[in-house]
């Protein structure tokens, strides 16, 4: 059993396979090893939803690298990479889980994707990285469901090299799970050595961990600090964390751990220092270390320094170089870890063990054991029940001060669209005499504001008072509770974590989890619009569905469309044959050419009608047809500045694309006095809306149009709302090719001839009736 035996484990055993490995079971390829002297363990964090309760895949990084999909319950061969990719000394400096069956690793400075599915494996070099890197950084969104924003978070990976000047470092970003990377350049304003890159999702920022040795302005005191930037890192924001110290000789070898539920909890540790931040690095503080002898926060860490640190959703554990074990509960105010296992004199040698949380309150110390007869390794496992160990401590720890803390919003993703609010409630029961009450926090107050109050809500069966915590969440920019410069731009929104927890609850509250929810101030993925159709060409018998479904095509004359959407004739082009996409368009809306048309947009969420869209929107014909116009001019629409138009916006694009040329991100109302001067009041006004009198007018034409409507009002929704509708215009009689003056002249001529003929006929009739004249 070695050193583990002296720990008095709740359960200890040497794990080996049922089938025996032999010397003939050699590994193929180049064996991987870890660059650092202390081992590390990487667990896939999003496994709470596994229906069978199977353990998460885990990667052990040490002198050998092992991948386990069963919680290290079998003997394993060391992990290898094909020799054609890495010939010798394949050294892993960083690794990260992308999915449950997908890893990304840095091996000898090069980045690879590794897939392991149903016993099959595949290595794939990534694309886009043109220099050697040493580190990887990513964070996971483990909320249940298939939310697209949550999935995008887990697909975001940074690859970079540390130990150099931050302004000179290349950082590579992947947003597709590591298949392709793009290079990002840091701002030249940065000074100091880059130590890490962190995706602070719940702050809607990327955090750069930078180390300095000299003071250079507020927030940049000697030591380290976080600087926050946007996703493309093209400019620096004003957010800079308070400075903190990383006690280490030379360039600090910093390891970071982020909470998978995006609470903003970040653990930073070196051999001598254990630090924690509960707010995405804005304030980083030392973890309080408590033993039987002392309680302190200042480094160096006892026990000869840290060997390994592990966290779960709510717990933290630390193993020292001389095999002391510390455990604590993550707290929103301050975190304390308590010594639960002392060093035993029989424990000697280098630290080759790692810590692994199996479930709440259950911690396993794990170390590989080579076999003499094969390449396979067995695993020594010591499982500890932390709740029992904490109960045995003397002096005893403070009891958990709360009995109940629950809320239906917990562990879910919620959306706040423009001008919307959310109302949540939580129930809590404090233990009598403790005075414990919950604290509400949001990780990104620049985006999300809240109001909260507490009411009594009856009693428990034990007679303890039950309380209800009521919360209302809203956009900070519309809350009236913050200065204008404090709120982020309302155009893009952002993410924030709502957390309800008991401050300073102590290490005893292992199973009393904080309540949390991811609040996405942005576009709900189920929100969309439709164009209302009151009368269709099918309902009036002009077409039938079978005809339109059977590869129906129609022709657009060469003089009625412009493929560049510039509404000008194109010489030399042929007629355009268009396939009617019935599955997307359905039956066309029936309109009459001489009746101006205003599209009516409907807002839907899932399959539920919400309202008629009252916001400004624009339309264009997807095939480039331009034989229609608008009813109002800029002057008639009461514009005070020059209105935007399709032609000007498309001409600004490098690659003309009407689908992206005009949107809520670049829309400017002509009712804005700060806009461009109104130089052409007779220009057609191309914005539509239920509050506008503008409409579309058609030319003398019968035929199909395929219009796309795009909502451009900045304040209506965070969604890029658009809908496509087919229209059939009818009622235009065939044009006459005889000139009107010619017809009038001919008509008058016929009338004159008729009058003259009538006169002649009348004279002739008189002559016949007159008597004969007798001549003498």
Strands, count: 50
Strand order of the largest sheet: 6-2-7-8-9-10
- Low-pLDDT ranges: 1-6, 215-221
Shape: elongated
Strand content: 35-45%
Report the C-alpha radius of gyration, rounded. 37 Å
Distance between the termini: 168 Å
In terms of structural class, how would the helical and strand content be classed? Answer: mainly beta
For this structure, the quaternary state is single chain
Give the helix tally.
7
- Major pleated sheet: 6 strands, mixed
Summarize the amount of helix as a percent range: under 10%
Mean pLDDT: 86
Task: Provide a concise account of the structure shown.
One of its GO terms (biological process) is flagellated sperm motility. It contains seven helices and 50 strands.
